[in-house]
Amino acid sequence: MRPPYPPPPERSAELRRRFAEEARSERPDLSTLCLLLGAEADGALDEAGMDTAQMELDRLAGQLPFRPGGPLSWATALQHLLGEREGFRGSPADYQRLESSLLHEVLRRRRGLPILLSVVWLEVARRAGAPVYGVALPGHFVVGFGPQEQQVLADPFDGGRVLSGSDAELLVAGATGAPLHPSMLTPADPLEVILRILNNIRAWAAARPERSDVALWAVELSLLLPSHPARLRYERAQLLVQRGDFVDGAVELEEYAELISAVDEGAAERVRGQARSARAMLN
């Protein structure tokens, strides 16, 4: 197994308990959730390492000018600090690395996926008092500054480049082939951001069958969120069977079949058949 290596079971259980507690709190903290996720991925990330990451975000926020002005001034200040001085940005190669989805590694390497670089922008800007929020464009996460009528978008993956309206339209068209719709520009809440990060990790692992361990913990963290797609339970069951845990996988398949039987009995029966096949592998 290639690094990063997961934590031992006792540490993992504690991290998951804290992750679920934070996700269900009145105001979930994005950086805390990202670091708990990172510690589940990387057993080398201990409490001191998580504190160090938070302190680095604090340090970066302290480098920003005091309330530089309106939304464009904030976006420009973040671009100068994080993109130019600190060197945060992304490249196509970053999509091939699990570390690109882990906040502590993004802070260390100054490289990551669009959504993790956006988390750095969000957390630094928030600490400095900026009117900032995540914008979950299809296929490419960016950050927004200011109210809707004065909204300024910036692309942390491109070093914080300020986007024109046509830039945003091109990003969406490139990802979906569809036009930009105003609903795509609304703020994303922390739990939406975390679920999207976990979706990225699941996609990374799906292309690497030898890392089904990563796919499994990403699914299991997703299931700890207050709102998640029910089909994740089916995905977890398939992963358990794939990893040789036939009994637990069969139980999960049977429970998922019961869940969907009221709306699609045919699909439920097919899932029950998969459960029977999983149990037969024990013979």
From TrEMBL:
Residue ranges annotated for the Protein SirB1 N-terminal domain, each copy included: 54-199
Membership in a protein family: Belongs to the UPF0162 family.
Protein name (record): Transglutaminase-like domain-containing protein
